[in-house]
Amino acid sequence: MKSSLLLSLLSLAGALVEAGPVHTPKVYIRNGTVSGRYSPEWHQDFFLGVPYAEPPTGNNRFRPPQHIKTKRNFEAKERGKFCWGYRGDQWQYPQSEDCLTLNVIRPAGISPHRKLPVAIFIHGGGFTIGSAHDPRYNMTFLVDQSVKEGTPIIGIGINYRLGGLGWIASRQVAGTKNLNLGLKDQRVAMQWVQENIRAFGGDPQKVTLFGASAGALSIGLHQLAYNGRDDKLFSQVMMISGSPIFFRPSPFPETFQANYDYLITQTGCLDATDSLQCLREVPIEQLNAAINTTQGQFTTAVVDGEFVAGIPSQNLKHGRFVKVPAIVASSTDEGAGYARMVQRYDTDAQVRGYVEGYTQYKPHMIDRLMELYPPSISIPDPANFTQPDQGSVLFGAQYHRLAAILGDIWFIAGKRYYARQLAAQNVPVWSVRTRVVPNGYADWVGSVHSTPLPFMFYNLNTTSFDIGAGDVKVVPDPMGGPNALAFKELANFGSRSLVRFFARGDPAAGRKPWDVNWVKYKHGSGKNQIVWDIGPGGVYVEKDTFREEGIQHMMDYFLQSAF
Ligand SMILES: *[C@@H]1O[C@H](CO)[C@@H](O)[C@H](O)[C@H]1NC(C)=O
Ligand SMILES: *[C@@H]1O[C@H](CO)[C@@H](O)[C@H](O)[C@H]1NC(C)=O
Ligand SMILES: *[C@@H]1O[C@H](CO)[C@@H](O)[C@H](O)[C@H]1NC(C)=O
Ligand SMILES: *[C@@H]1O[C@H](CO)[C@@H](O)[C@H](O)[C@H]1NC(C)=O
Ligand SMILES: *[C@@H]1O[C@H](CO)[C@@H](O)[C@H](O)[C@H]1NC(C)=O
Questions:
Q1: Closest residue by CA, ligand 1 atom 4
Q2: Which structural domain, as residue segments, surrounds residue 548?
Q3: How far is the CA of 406 from the centre of ligand 4 (A)?
Q4: Which end of the chain, N or C, is less surrounded by CB atoms within 10 Å?
């Protein structure tokens, strides 16, 4: 009786919503009113393109983000513009310098007194492309999964400045507070969440940062920021294909001196007394034309002695980081997309030359590395190839060897180092390796960079992957094909594990009896890493010790040198 009354009330409510297109979710925040959009299809409220800072334009260009100065009402019904980006998959979207916005996606109809867990996604794209508005990072599915799991969450995606506009660095910029602007954008967005998320029904004390690639490195740097000062901006972190360890020896402002000099030469600012001020006055089209060249690129954060206070591997080792529960994840064949980007690699000397230039390892370090990664090492594992290997044909006889080296240096050694440091310091940490090859990818291409994402976002309709260096492989239906059902099951497990982590601080809490248990990362022997796969093996746990000697060699070098 009661339930049928409830049902008819519910359908009445449904009818009312359908009848009038008037349901506009409205939230009152410090900066005014935010009017979002109700999605009847998902029963969610979308607040899209909400500004979290003053536009970084005009005299605000090349300065840290400024808090919004005047109260106003925001229409947040359509997704905002992407920040200007400087590689391939950015150019199909509307872009603007005025781009410091975020999206808030929440289940509709929640009581204003609820305090839901919050997950903030920081996108990747090598600090030069990407946006929270990219449909690959559509938060709807994950929020929907959280409702089905019985622990609804609020999902947030943030934009930050890219390329030269966000990461300009040089001798001249050093000491001006204008370094690492992209990181400062992200941090102001986190402060915005602290001050405003309660108005959306969120809990500012239960905020997880999660991000991929450059977004993962960013999160790592927030965890280490100001030598690990805890500003209470987040209570958990998750890094996918990235860690606080730079993808190379730690860069400093002067690392980008040549790029800066090129920029000021191209824009007529070479002789200005204050070249940075001069750059603020250059029309954006002219500035973009200069940034948008090989010489004009700024591609990472730098050690500024303050925000990025020190060398990340040393900070981790000495406990100078915010000690919160963490998940680190990578795909199995991280380096496979990247190794194809430069030239062919047929000979020992070619591989050696690349590694030498990239790592600045001393000669004896390289000798040892070449021994530990002999030509017989191949990423992906050729035992699994069912088609002829085109990798060696197209990219060189030693392509698969370089893929192993690059993937380990850039992603996997940093992840293992991070997990081991946290475990040694008794900070809860879990580790994931995904080994799924999406539909439409040949075996020899493998489980490349960024493949974990659709399994985490439960985005079964994703369109493409950035497999490295702007080389976007667009396949028609990466989550479809003969394995579609298995992909869906894995995405269900993956996304719900994330939800459990966001909501309960533990990806295994409340798991289904038939789900594989997540084991915490620990030192010493024993299985400590969860592998996400489909097929007969499915999801399982393993010891995180593959290529142990080679990766240990890299981890030793992190400390000796300055990764
Ligand atoms: C706008 O919001 C930010 C972040 O919550 C806050 O710091 C700032 O003071 C607000 N500005 C106004 C004019 O209310
Ligand atoms: C996410 O994608 C679904 C399916 O295309 C769409 O219905 C939904 O509106 C999208 N969500 C957002 C926040 O754009
Ligand atoms: C960069 O150059 C490409 C190729 O010429 C062009 O399509 C794109 O619009 C340019 N981007 C910017 C931000 O100038
Ligand atoms: C790939 O090869 C490994 C052994 O090298 C094997 O354990 C695994 O099952 C294979 N995976 C697939 C998908 O065939
Ligand atoms: C998937 O994408 C297609 C085309 O982009 C769209 O027609 C379809 O509704 C989407 N399906 C889901 C479940 O999002």
A1: 192
A2: 2-333+348-560
A3: 22
A4: N
Q: How far apart are the first and last CA of the chain?
A: 66
Our mutation pick for probing the ligand 3 site, out of 91, 97, 128, 129, counting the most ligand atoms within 8 A of Cβ, is: 91
For 3-45, the pLDDT digits (tens) are: 444 444 444 443 333 434 458 999 999 999 999 999 999 999 9
C-alpha distances (whole Å) from 228 to each of 121, 232, 310, 317, 470 are 21, 11, 10, 12, 33
Does 209 reside within a domain? yes
Q: How far apart are CA 201 and CA 303, in angstroms?
A: 37
Ligand 3 atom 5 nearest Cα = 292
Pocket of ligand 3 contains residue 84 by CB under 6 Å = yes
CATH code of the domain covering residue 423: 3.40.50.1820
Q: What are the residues whose beta carbons fall under 8 Å from the beta carbon of 327, sequence distance 6 or more?
A: 237, 238, 239, 429, 430, 431, 432, 501, 507
Scan for tokens 């995405």, then name that residue: 491
Task: Say how many domains are in the chain.
Answer: 1
- Decide: pTM greater than 0.90: yes
Q: Give the CA count within 13 Å in the CB-facing half-sphere of 171.
A: 4
Does any domain span residue 339? Answer: no
- Phi first, then psi, for residue 321 (nearest 5°) are -155, 160
